[in-house]
Amino acid sequence: MATLPEEIMFIWCRPKAMSAVLFLVNRYVAVLNNILVLMSTFLPVSTESCWKYVMVIHVLRVFQQGFICFTLTLRTYALYGCSRRLLKWMLIMGAVFIIALVVGAFGPNVQSAIDNGHCHEIYTTSTSMHHGTTWVTIFIYEFLIFVLTVFGTWKARGSPRFYLISRRDILDVIFQDGVMYFAGMALINLPNILTYFCGPDIAIGSLNAFTACMSVTLISRLMLNLHGCVDTGIFATLAETSSYLLTTEVDVEFADSPRDPYPG
Asked: What is the CA radius of gyration of the chain?
């Protein structure tokens, strides 16, 4: 809800570019997933219905995390000037990542149970290891995106600077949001991963839903910040960032130039 005003301004009130469509898919698949989680938790369900809820939530959550990584891949592809060579290697790594994600989430038999009327998943040693590996895979891929973002920004303009107050152009937005996204997800995802590998039984998977929600929130903020600069959003290339900076500098120069009090 905190980003709803920006969503209305930058997404709904502007032409629906591909980046805007990706934003809406990412945001509202997450809403659907959260609704199902609440229904399975607070509504009375049978044992069979509980298993179906757990499976559907799994499918939506895997799709959601894969979609977020796909979005980050497209943003990195645009940052590197739509380099086909980079896209080829990222698609290969992305395919490996998707396989690991699916195997980790659905490899072992998914089991569910109803406790005091609440539907929840049962984590065995096997399922804990598989699910933990899934989140480790996501963390590794996001770290790769972070490294590519920093290197791409440095390559485009030299050593990037982290401005806490103001942002000069789209490159600053890409760099700062990339750093903040990775830092935020690292702080959230690492404790989530630890619950699977070395946490007590009661803590296993307890941060799963929170981590998924925060990843959607952070990627939505990242996309909205880019849409606040250009309508192409995550597909903004270096050529567009240069033209945006030039336009901004020209507007500032005209605004700051003194006017002749005696025209003519």
From this structure: 22
Six-digit token pair at 135? 């989140």
Amino acid sitting at position 61: R
Helix axes 47-79, 125-157, angle to 10 degrees: 20
pTM beyond 0.70: yes
Strand segments (E) across the chain: 111-115, 118-122
Torsion of CA 67, 71, 77, 82, to 10 degrees: 100
Q: What is the Cα–Cα distance from 99 to 192, expressed in whole angstroms?
A: 21
Report which secondary-structure segment, H or E, holds 58: helix 47-79
Report the residue count for the chain.
264
241-247, Cβ contacts within 8 angstroms, sequence gap of 24 or more: 241/156, 241/169, 241/170, 241/171, 241/174, 244/169, 244/170, 245/168, 245/169, 245/170
Burial state string for 145-179 with b = 16 or more CB within 10 A and e = fewer than 16: bbebbeebbeebbeebeeeeeebebbbbbbbbbbb
pLDDT tier at 142, thresholds 50, 70, 90: very high
Confidence grade of residue 165 (pLDDT, cut at 50, 70, 90):
very low
